[in-house]
């Protein structure tokens, strides 16, 4: 009987971090890890960390009742392109989550998330598609997170915050709590730098750094 096939799309650093979580998740579902592969469009080796590496076309050619993939690609724009590619080819978005991720009440999580160890999602949260939450990051109560958002390790998002599509929250950054009637907003495609402390709205497409966070203007 043909079985489903699962993949971590991307065999570089991000993908190698997600693969052990994917393997453990399938073992918990009594699915052999032989049904788990890496997808990489430019594979450096046929096997990485014990798992086969296939090109995308090879993945589609494998015998399978269904195909599922989690997109372990740090660049959110590329992640969006690959999500559209997979959907067009009938590859289902797959959410991979560490065993010790904490999810509290009323958390709505979009498809295709990658949740690393020690991530916490508290209560009354809405999170969009293909969210990446790296080690020790958290989302507090009453937050709305868009599609293709990335939290680097240790990113801290406090309550009543809106983070729009494609935003990137750097390692160790802290986003101050907003108010129920006036949430703090991180605009679409904004970048919050490593260790930044965000105390006010961040405009779409901008980069903020420092404590308190200010707009970054590179010197010419």
Q: What structural keywords apply?
A:
single chain, 2 domains, 6-stranded mixed sheet, Rossmann fold, 220 residues, alpha/beta, Trans_hexapeptide_repeat, 3 helices, elongated, UDP N-Acetylglucosamine Acyltransferase, domain 1, Hexapep, 8-stranded mixed sheet
Protein structure class: alpha/beta
Total number of distinct structural domains: 2
The global form is elongated
Span from first to last CA? 62 Å
Quaternary status of these chains?
single chain
> Largest sheet, if any?
8 strands, mixed
Quick one: CATH class of the largest domain? Mainly Beta
CATH architecture of the largest domain: 3 Solenoid
- The fraction of residues assigned to DSSP E strands is 25-35%
Give the low-confidence spans.
none
Question: How many distinct helices?
Answer: 3
CATH superfamily of the largest domain: Hexapeptide repeat proteins
Organism: Variovorax beijingensis
Domain PglD N-terminal: 7-85
Protein name: Acetyltransferase
Family: Belongs to the transferase hexapeptide repeat family.
Structure commentary:
By secondary structure, this protein is an alpha/beta fold. It has helices at residues 13-28, 56-61, 76-88; strands at 5-9, 36-39, 47-48, 51-54, 67-71, 92-93, 96-97, 102-103, 107-109, 114-115, 120-121, 125-127, 132-133, 138-139, 144-145, 150-151, 156-157, 161-163, 168-169, 174-175, 184-186, 191-192, 197-198, 207-209, 214-215. It has two domains: 5-94, Rossmann fold (3-Layer(aba) Sandwich); 97-209, UDP N-Acetylglucosamine Acyltransferase, domain 1 (3 Solenoid). The protein starts with a strand and ends in a 5-residue tail after the last strand. The strands form four sheets. It has an eight-stranded mixed β-sheet with strand order 7-10-13-16-19-22-24-25, with helices on one face. The model has no long low-confidence stretch (mean pLDDT 96).
